[in-house]
Amino acid sequence: MIYDASIFAVIIFVMFVIAVLGISKYFASKTKSSAGYYAAGGQIHWAVNGIAFAGDYLSAASFLGICGMIAFFGYDGFLYSIGYLAGWVVALFVVAEPLKKAGKYTFTDALDNRFNSKAIQLMAAISTLIVSVCYLIPQMVGAGALITPLLGMPHYVGVILVGGIVIFIVATAGMASTTYVQFIKGGLLIFFSTILTISLFVNGYKLMPDENYHEFITLSVASENGQVTSVDGYTIASQNSDLGVVKLEKDGVQTWWQLQDEGKTLIEAPSVVVLENGDELYNGAPKEDRKFYQVGHMSKIIVDGKEVEETGALGPFEFLETITNSEVILFKKNVFHDGADKVTLWKHTPTKGERIMRPGLKFHLDENSTGWDKTNFISLMLALFLGTSALPHILIRYYTVPSPKDARKSTIVAIASIGFFYVLTLFMGLGAMTHGVLDLGSSNMSAPLLAKFFGIFLFSCISAIAFATVLGTVSGLIVAASGAVAHDLISNFGGVNLSDAGQVKAGKISAVVVGLIAIVLGILFKGMNVSFLVGLAFAVAASANLPAIMMVIFWKKTSAIGVATSIFVGMTTALAIILTSPSMYAQYGLDPATAPSPLGQPGIISIPLAFLTLIVFSLLFPSKDAKPMPN
Amino acid sequence: MAGHGPAADWGEDKASGYKARLGIYLFIVYCVVYAAFVALNTFSPKMMGMIVFSGLNLAVVYGMGLIILAIIMGVIYNHKCTKAEDLMNK
After folding, report:
1. Number of residue pairs across A and B with CB atoms under 8 Å?
2. What is the pTM of this model?
3. φ, ψ at A74 (rounded to 5°)
4. Measured between alpha carbons, how far is A607 from A601 in angstroms, rounded to an integer?
5. pLDDT of residue A41
6. Cβ neighbours of A320 in B, within 8 Å
7. Bridge partners of A273?
8. Which of A95, A182, A307, A627 could form a Cys-Cys staple with A472, CB 3.0–4.6 A?
């Protein structure tokens, strides 16, 4: 889809970027020590840190990915919101205070506190790097997705722009500027998402979302034995009776249509065709012709048992109740070959609201689902629950506040603000589904495009904040990764005795390298749903780090060898399952059916395996001089 | 500046045992409620479509309930911990 840049959007966006860079420059002048660079001097107020937590956590995955997934699959996308938020319970009740007491700059410090073990320092630093990179990919993909409608530039420009700005932020002031960028952005994201949700309630639902919404053409057809034989005014170019779709030609333009009404009529179906020579046709025409329209509408609106054209303003409960009782046209993606052409076609699928508002449209959980489908779902929910408190860029935020008590309080502020935001995602996602704003080529754009429905001002603010969201999260991840390299690997593991200024310099160089890697990966992974990708990062974090964190805190017999092997086994098992899964095979361009691992989500195997490894190796190789955890 | 370990010596926190126990209890309670939610979604997805409150189905009510429960439990935990710290660390 082609987007036009809006001057107003560009101005707001540039103002945001200038503000972010200004904050970084200001804190850069104050940040001279390693404590300042890695942990903002440990002097951030708990309330500020709590909102900054929200800023860190409400990344591109939450805002772009979840809203997009709800817009395309209904309630199943909301399950991500629930899982992400539930993970904070583990962080608050189990991890927050002990980790603050035991650590200094990085979570490796806390893990290694009892042992002073080279093996732990090495494995925890590698794990931090891998999890950070896994988490960076979707953020960069989200940046690319955002920049296209905002500035009218290609995906890769967005990725390079974010990478460049973030490298500047992190390489100048580290955690202090990252914290304040996250605080401002987290607060603004929640504020403007609330405005967007209220706008939805005021607008209510309409059968015709707005006057410019595309009116789908229907044609009467003559058919015989399930084959279309003639259509007035069109020539039949080909048909796929398995899928019930027909390719028609008129004035030299070929378009795809979908059979409906038991084969009596055809309705135009959005399509993208990749020709043998690599050219792409959007609804039969080159992209520049702008024939690829936005979609998303209701086919029936039921209020108090009666069909209506529009609802008028609705309260939050009424908003959910109305869609539950109504019917929505979802656009179901089908990919097939027509001769040498690869066709992606979205079929109109009338879907009852009752079906949209319960699980099963994305995750296969109904009667015809397999044991692997159910296992995949359980595995995902387990990883989301246990992944939060194992994310390095979240854990390092515990070192920016003055005391363990502040760590606890800031976690509660985080839970309240993040929880509120996640409730809003359900409304925003359903709003995008029904307000004619969906870009079928990119689910990630659903929330910003919904904002555009309510005017360019809201769109500009939401997009600029979403962009700042990516900036902030990527900054936090790069601080975590650079800390792993400079503090954990070079200084602690390598035993290189760097001066304080040397540690800061090493961190900044590491930040530049990690930032460049993130840019390359962000371009390579274009088009994947960012929430799906973050779900995988959670799985790696939960498998590699969480068993070690929990056992170090709660099991006195935990040994250094046990912790190091547990991280290694959890991390490699999770990565091996992910890299050989059907969804990754599809990403490689291979047939997903040939993927060696039937599981896409590794947590259900890799997390228990990491716990078991830790227990067995701790019993076999005890650490005789391990210290107790700080009280 | 190299090396690791805590950034500061916080002094003995006499309430730490109480706080850890309370945290574990609340964690277990939430785990059970969350596990039941995942089990229902996995094995009875149709049941999640049952209307239970003000026109909303079980999926929405339970899901939102989990978010709200986390916030409420967090506030209770902080209140109890702060009270214990004030009493035991005098």
Report:
1. 178
2. 0.88
3. 70, -135
4. 11
5. 62
6. 55-56, 60
7. A281, A343
8. A182
Residues of chain A with pLDDT under 70: 1-5, 24, 28-42, 103-105, 149-150, 172-174, 527-529, 531, 629-631
Task: Read off the pLDDT band of B2 (50, 70, 90).
Answer: very low
ipTM field: 0.90
Q: Which domains does chain A have, with CATH numbers?
A: 41-204+372-620 (1.20.1730.10), 218-356 (no CATH)
For residue A295, give both structure tokens: 């979609």
Q: Which residues contact A450 (CB under 8 A, 6 or more apart)?
A: A67, A71, A196, A200, A428, A431, A432, A435, A437
Distance CA A125, CA B2 (A): 15
In chain B, what are the domain boundaries?
16-88
Which residue's structure tokens are 């004030």? Answer: B86
Six token digits for residue A263? 């084969």
Cα–Cα dist B27/A546, whole Å: 15
* Pairing label, strands A265-268, A271-274: unpaired
Matching residue, tokens 């135009």: A268
**Which residues partner with A328 through β-bridges?**
A298, A351
Strand duo A271-274 + B51-53: pairing: unpaired
* HSE-CB of A451 using CA atoms within 13 angstroms: 29
CB A414 within 8 A of CB A110: no
Please report, for residues A419, A476, B30, B31, B55, the alpha-carbon distance to residue B69 in angstroms, rounded to integers and kept in the order given: 10, 28, 8, 12, 21
Per-residue pLDDT tens over the stretch A11-64 = 887 887 788 777 767 776 666 666 666 666 667 788 888 888 888 788 777 788
Q: Measure in Å the smallest separation between the Cα of A449 and chain B Cα atoms.
A: 25
User: What tokens were used for B66?
Assistant: 């989990």
Bridge pairing between strands A280-282 and A297-303: unpaired
B-proximal residues of A, 72-91, CB under 8 Å: 75, 78-79, 81-82, 85-86, 88-90
pLDDT band with cut points at 50, 70 and 90 for residue B13: confident
Distance CA A284, CA A137 (A): 32
Distance from CA of B90 to the nearest CA of A (A): 15
Alpha-carbon span A567 to A606, nearest angstrom: 10
Chain A closest-CA separation from residue B30 CA (Å): 8
SS (H, E, C) A399-440: HCCCCHHHHHHHHHHHHHHHHHHHHHHHHHHHHHHHCCCECC
Per-residue confidence (pLDDT) for residue A325, from 0 to 100: 96
Other C-beta atoms closer than 10 Å to the C-beta of A318 total 16
Chain B hits for A503, CB-CB cut-off 8 Å, are 1-2
How far apart are the CA of A499 and the nearest CA of chain B, in angstroms? 7
Single-letter amino acid, residue A48? V
Judged by CB atoms closer than 8 Å, whether chains meet at A357 and B34 is answered as: no
C-alpha span between A478 and A391 (Å, rounded): 13
Q: Letter for the amino acid at A603?
A: G
| Residue A40 CB coordination number (10 Å) | 29
Q: Tell me the β-bridge partners of A300.
A: A327
Q: Are A351 and A327 in contact (CB under 8 A)?
A: yes
